[in-house]
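Page 37, continued from 36.
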C-alpha cells in the first residue's frame, strides 16, 4: 500500500512543479518555420533545439542509446552538418569514461537522457538497486554536463509500474519509441538506413544505437532523405511539447 501512495504523491508534486513552465510556454511558442530563409534569424535563435512547433510542422525524433561510445563524435559531426537535433540516452558508467563527449552532446543542442548505470534489466532489480541504477546515472550526467536529465529510457525497453515510479521519484519521464531499427542485429549500413526511412512517420520516435558503427554511417543518407520528406529533426522534448513529459509519465505510450 505504501508503494502505491508514494509515487502518486511524487506525481502530484511534479504536476505542481511543472505548472509554471507550462504556463510560461505560450510566450515563446512562435515557431520559426522558415529557419533556412535568413541566416541572421538562425543565428539569433538559441543554439539549443531551434524553436520548432511540432504541433504545426512535421517532426521526428531520432534517438541514440548506449553511448557515449567510440562513434559518437562522428555522429555529432554529421548532425551538426545537417543542423539536426537528436536525443542521446546515455549509460552512466560510459559517461564516467567519456565525460567530454557527454558535454559535447549537450553543448551542441542535443538532449541527454538517463539509460541506467550498468544497462541492466530494471524490473528484475530490487528497489535499492533499481533506484541506484537511475540515481547514479543522474549524478554522472550532472557531473559531466552540469545538469540532471529529465528523461530516461529503460534498457531493452523492459519496464513496469515500479520502474516508472522510481523514475518519477527522480523527476524523470520514461521515453520508449514508435519504431526500432534493430540496428544492433542488422549491422548493415544500407539496411539500417532503409529501416529508419520505412519507420519514419510524423511525431515518430526512432530507436537506434550510436555504438553500432553502421548506424552512424547510415545517418547522412537518413538525414538527407528525411529533410527531403519535409521533416524537422528535433529532440524528444521538442517533439513531445509541454506537459507530456512529467516525472513518472511514459511517452509516446
Ligand atoms: Zn540500451
Amino acid at each position: 500500500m505504501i508503494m502505491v501512495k508514494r509515487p502518486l504523491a511524487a506525481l502530484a508534486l511534479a504536476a505542481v512543479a511543472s505548472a509554471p513552465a507550462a504556463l510560461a510556454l505560450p510566450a515563446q511558442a512562435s515557431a520559426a518555420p522558415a529557419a533556412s530563409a535568413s541566416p541572421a534569424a538562425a543565428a539569433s535563435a538559441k543554439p539549443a533545439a531551434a524553436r520548432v512547433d511540432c504541433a504545426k510542422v512535421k517532426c521526428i525524433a531520432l534517438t541514440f542509446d548506449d553511448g557515449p561510445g567510440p562513434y559518437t563524435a562522428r555522429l555529432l559531426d554529421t548532425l551538426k552538418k545537417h543542423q539536426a537535433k537528436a536525443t542521446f540516452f546515455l549509460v552512466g558508467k560510459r559517461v564516467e569514461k567519456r565525460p567530454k563527449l557527454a558535454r559535447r552532446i549537450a553543448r551542441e543542442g542535443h538532449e541527454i537522457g538517463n539509460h541506467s548505470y550498468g544497462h541492466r534489466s530494471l524490473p528484475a532489480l530490487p528497489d535499492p538497486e533499481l533506484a541506484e541504477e537511475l540515481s547514479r546515472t543522474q549524478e554522472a550526467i550532472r557531473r559531466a554536463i552540469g545538469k540532471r536529465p529529465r528523461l530516461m529510457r529503460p534498457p531493452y525497453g523492459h519496464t513496469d509500474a515500479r520502474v516508472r515510479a522510481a523514475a518519477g521519484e527522480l523527476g524523470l519521464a520514461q521515453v520508449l519509441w514508435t519504431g526500432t531499427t534493430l540496428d544492433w542485429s542488422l549491422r548493415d549500413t544500407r539496411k539500417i538506413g532503409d529501416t529508419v526511412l520505412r519507420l519514419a512517420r510524423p511525431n515518430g520516435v526512432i530507436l537506434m544505437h550510436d555504438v553500432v558503427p553502421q548506424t552512424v554511417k547510415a545517418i547522412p543518407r537518413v538525414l538527407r532523405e528525411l529533410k527531403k520528406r519535409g521533416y524537422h529533426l528535433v529532440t524528444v522534448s521538442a517533439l513531445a511539447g509541454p506537459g507530456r513529459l512529467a516525472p513518472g509519465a511514459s511517452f509516446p505510450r
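Confidence is low (pLDDT under 50) at residues 1-49. Flag for discussion at group meeting. The first helix runs from residue 2 to 24.
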